[in-house]
Amino acid sequence: MTKQEIFVFPDEEEASKKLNRKAKESPFMIIGLTGLIGALGYSAYRFKNRGSMSTSVYLMQTRVAAQGAVVSCLALGVAYTMFNNYVLHKDEDNK
């Protein structure tokens, strides 16, 4: 192998184009990211009124809520895809 063959990289996709492509492929990812931002925004807003709860416990609860939002949206996306492919048999139309 020559040096040119080793260091040849495919054309890299721009971040905005990649995000648009991923949004079309799996719209539940975008919904999950929106849920993540919403959970973090709500927690940041409520941070002053957390009462006597320590900061570390509050941040741990915030992390769990944000992860729960993302995982639940991705699980819904998987269930939706499986429903379309196996119950409605939309996969056969593409073959």
Short précis:
This protein has 95 residues and is mainly α. Helices cover 72% and strands 0% of the residues.
Mean pLDDT: 81
Counting DSSP E segments of at least 2 residues, the number of strands comes to 0
The description of the largest β-sheet is: none
Please tell me what the overall shape is.
flat
Output the number of helix runs: 4
Strand content bin: under 5%
Could you give the distance between the termini?
A: 39 Å
**Helix-residue proportion:** over 70%
Give helix and strand order, one letter per element, not per position: HHHH
Rg, nearest Å: 21 Å
* Computed structural class: mainly alpha
Poorly predicted spans: none
Description of the molecule:
By secondary structure, the protein is mainly α. The longest helix is centred in the C-terminal third of the chain and has 33 residues, at 55-87. The chain has helices at 3-6, 15-25, 27-46, 55-87. It is flat and about 55 Å long. 4% of the residues are buried. It has 4 helices and no strands. Helix 2 crosses helix 3. It starts with a helix and ends in an 8-residue tail after the last helix.
